[in-house]
Amino acid sequence: MNSVVPEPNPSAPTPFSEAEAQRVRSIWGTLGLPGLIDVHTHFMPRSVMDKVWAYFDSAGPLVGREWPITYRADEDVRVAALQAFGIRAYSSLVYPHKPNMAEWLNGWAADFAAHHPDCLHTATFYPEEPATAYVSKAIAAGTRVFKCHIQVGAFSPLDPLLDGVWSQIADAQVPVIIHCGSGPAPGTYTGPEPIARLLRRFPSLPLIIAHMGTPEYEQFLGLAERFENVRLDTTMSFTDFSEADAPYPPELRPRLADLGPKILFGSDFPNIPYAYTHALDAIVRLDLGDDWVRGVLYRNAAGLFGVH
């Protein structure tokens, strides 16, 4: 990973201001961190990203509410924004919604990571016959994180076509960021029970539960407490936007504090309906202590992904 945070180019068009970038840098700088690690960011082929944005614009059933895209911009501008914010490592979370799509996305994501050294090489999968083979290929090619979207993909994590995928991932210990909670809208296969059954079959699976498992917070917190390699990412959680519909129970905060080393910062950039600074402020205002915040914003992910 690059150790130097590039300064933003003042002549480039940006969806952010230099004042915002300075505010982000001041948050991690005040904590004595070298930057941030954001495990939950989206970079996709242009045709796919355009369709994702159009879906958010239409407030489709998986979104269910008005959801403006704050950082809607060309790919190079979005990369520059993360650099200006001081993001030391991020992901390009791609995910298929139909068969015969995942391997193409993996090829695109591998190329993106090759051209952007701060991006964790990302891959994905779908329950289909070739999945075991292309996941094996992705692991061999150096994939550092997988994305699995149960809600959008509308598939069960227990589908037998994924047996070879899960066993390889468990053996290789490549983390999987998995959207399996029932927020913002429930799916046929979302919720904690299928994941609990999956973990009983593959107890060493390195899962990162996206969005803290919104809205089934307590159940997914329990899985992270029970299984050694299960973690949670903070994506959109604790923000005003999420608290309006699915507030995080205050009584769970002591358990959140105890589970600190297993919680990773994620933002959902660029598809967030508020400023990046608000995602960081939402973590800080939990008032769980500076050391807890340091772990969440940088140290926990740095240890998991070997970021120096």
From TrEMBL:
SUPFAM superfamilies from the UniProt entry: Metallo-dependent hydrolases (SSF51556)
GO function term, MF aspect, one: hydrolase activity
One Pfam assignment: Amidohydro_2
Q: Can you cite a GO biological process for this protein?
A: secondary metabolic process
The family database entries (InterPro entries) matched by this protein are listed as: ACMSD (IPR032465), Amidohydro-rel (IPR006680), Metal_Hydrolase (IPR032466)
UniProt keyword list? Hydrolase, Lyase
Domain named Amidohydrolase-related: residues? 37-306
What are the record's GO terms for cellular component? cytoplasm
- Name-wise, this protein is Putative amidohydrolase
User: Which organism encodes this protein?
Assistant: Gordonia polyisoprenivorans (strain DSM 44266 / VH2)
